[in-house]
Amino acid sequence: MFEISFIPAFKDNYIWLLRRGRQAVVVDPGDAGPVLARLADDGLELAGILVTHHHADHQGGIAELRARHPAPVFAPADESITGRSEPLHGGESLTLLDQVVRVLAVPGHTAGHLAYLVDDRLFCGDTLFGAGCGRLFEGTPAQMAASLDSIAALPPATLIHCAHEYTEANLRFAQAVEPDNPDIAARVAQVAQLRRAGQPSVPSTLAEELATNPFLRCRQPAVIAAARQHGAADASPVAVFAALRAWRNGF
Q1: Pick from 200, 206, 89, 218: which is nearest to 144 by CA?
Q2: Which helix (H) or strand (E) holds 96?
Q3: Can you name the residues that pair with 117 across neighbouring β-strands?
Q4: Sign of dihedral through CA atoms 223, 141, 28, 75?
Q5: Bridge-partner residues for 15, per DSSP?
Q6: How many CB atoms lie within 10 A of CB 34?
Q7: Per-block average pLDDT, block size 10, for the chain (251 residues)?
Q8: How many CB atoms sit inside 10 A of residue 133's CB?
Q9: Per annotation, catalytic residue among 28, 31, 53, 54
Q10: Is 110 in contact with 139 (CB distance < 8 Å)?
Q11: Interval 20-46: pLDDT, tens
């Protein structure tokens, strides 16, 4: 098993570090500085880089990292990724540090977005957040809804390792969608306590997301009703998702 921790970067990014012994894999290293510092402090050798998508805050540190640690870079085949050596499309199984890593195609935020599943841990970049999901910069509502459905089908105990600390803001929107949902109210209190203590709100479990994340609840009557009041053309999951995403963009 990996030992998993995060490296904070920029204002609210999490660069995930998967460690076994003295070797490590990092996910979405947008900034090389804090990764190099962690590797040096812990005496680690970089054995691989996993990239979910092409945005600079997820890949901007690759060139500097590889100048010091010439590790393979696993990344979407159809996106422009600095230093990519192992192009991926989704559906592959990798072996990193003697551990199987499943590659999932989850387009929507970007056209070629990937997620990486290691045992019961999903590293999903900007597809799924705590109580939210990524904006649609390149994909369609149908693509993102399908990607979220594929994540929702994973075991409920799956730990969701997203790439940003957005949970508090997302929960405010979730409460606007479902003001009477007691699970959302409980999570608001829990996350507020964590953040006051300087602790991250992630990873969450998929079960928590299924109970509190409106973008995974597009088939729930209360969510459908709220979406219909905000422009959903009908009660289909894609129409509900599209209305929620447009509402969230201006929230």
Answers
A1: 218
A2: strand 93-96
A3: 102, 122
A4: positive
A5: 7
A6: 17
A7: 94 97 98 98 97 98 96 97 96 95 98 97 98 98 98 98 98 98 98 98 98 98 98 97 98 96
A8: 29
A9: 53
A10: yes
A11: 999 999 999 999 999 999 999 999 999
**Distance (Å, whole) CA 52 – CA 105:** 9
Tell me, yes or no, if 69 is annotated catalytic: no
53 is catalytic: yes
218: helix, strand or coil: coil
57 is catalytic: yes
Question: 113 catalytic, yes or no?
Answer: no
Alpha carbon separation from 205 to 159, 186, 209 (Å, rounded): 4, 15, 7
Residue 41 annotated as catalytic? no
CA distance 30 to 9: 8
Which of these is catalytic: 28, 54, 69, 109? 109
Contact between 133 and 209 under an 8 Å Cβ cutoff? The reply is no
The sheet carrying 73-76 orders its strands as: 3-9, 13-20, 23-27, 45-50, 73-76, 86-88
> What pTM was computed for the model?
0.97
Residues constituting the chain: 251
- 22's tokens: 């003295």
Q: Which of 68, 21, 16 is nearest to 44 (CA)?
A: 21
Query: What is the Cα–Cα distance from 14 to 35, expressed in whole angstroms?
Result: 11
